[in-house]
UniProtKB/TrEMBL annotation:
Domain of life: Bacteria
Source organism per UniProt: Lachnospira pectinoschiza
Protein's recorded name: PD-(D/E)XK nuclease family transposase
One Pfam family here: PDDEXK_2
InterPro entries per the UniProt record, alphabetical: RpnA
């Protein structure tokens, strides 16, 4: 992970913090969706939605609503291949979460799942890709009011437009108008906040622990495989597979506890 002082808007942690500022988030939505939004409220920051039938939780970085619409905004700098399926899953859990049991399906709000991506997923150099459900044969809009938006920050776009200035800021950290200036000032304020810095350090430690655990389990699986084929001890397998000594105790503990 990056050092806290080096974080930019394209880092997931910083993006979610900046989007917690209502005026910035509202202006971002108006820019991306090209519509006026009167008022927004946050449902819950970094909300985890648990759906009984699926038994799987999903963390929504920025989950908010206005009177008629719910929005989920995510920053994405890697793992681009599964974004369409992820947006489908997010859409489903948002709907289940927002619709109370006693209410009718007609009360479902229009929804937007928005991914801000640092890669052009579709290759048309469009800064914004918008997807809705419709009939391919008759070009009929289905009317489920489920929208998926992909913001392509790698798009080549004129810096003379507000959208172009925003995308240029994402790519190059160049402040060129009031909106990007407001974002930049907010980032600098966040970096001075000791509580947020501590939160980031805790997250960093958790991710390092998860990475370490993943490495250990990979080595454990390698040893299991080789011992199924050859009658050798754990110590012999550790040496034969050139597993670094710093992992030996943890790997052996995992294997001996089976």
């Amino acid at each position: 992970m990056k050092n806290f002082k080096d974080l930019t808007l394209t880092d997931d942690f910083m993006f979610s913090k900046v989007m917690r500022k209502k005026d910035i988030c509202k202006e971002f939505l108006e820019l991306i969706l090209d519509k006026k939004i009167e008022k927004i409220e946050y449902i819950e920051a970094e909300k985890t939605l648990n759906i009984d039938y699926d038994k799987r939780g999903v963390r929504l970085d920025v989950f908010l609503q206005d009177e008629t619409t719910v929005y989920n905004i995510e920053m994405q700098t890697s793992n681009f291949a599964n974004i369409p399926k992820r947006s489908r899953f997010y859409q489903g859990v948002m709907d289940v979460s927002s619709l109370e049991k006693a209410r009718d399906f007609n009360d479902l709000k229009e929804s937007y799942v928005i991914f801000v991506c640092t890669k052009d997923l579709f290759g048309y150099n469009e800064p914004i890709y918008e997807f809705i459900t419709y009939s391919k044969k008759h070009d009929i809009i289905y009317g489920d009011e489920a929208n998926k938006i992909i913001v392509n920050t790698s798009a080549e776009i004129s810096n003379e437009t507000k959208l172009g200035k925003f995308i240029n800021y994402l790519k190059n950290n160049v402040v060129s108008d009031d909106f990007t200036s407001s974002i930049n000032d907010t980032i600098n304020e966040i970096k001075l906040d000791s509580e947020t810095r501590g939160e980031y350090m805790v997250l960093e430690a958790k991710m390092m622990d998860a990475k370490q655990e993943g490495i250990i389990m990979a080595y454990v699986n390698q040893i299991r495989t080789i011992r199924e084929k050859e009658s050798i001890s754990i110590d012999e397998a550790l040496i034969k597979l050139y597993i670094p000594e710093k992992y030996w105790d943890a790997v052996k503990k995992e294997l001996l506890n089976e």
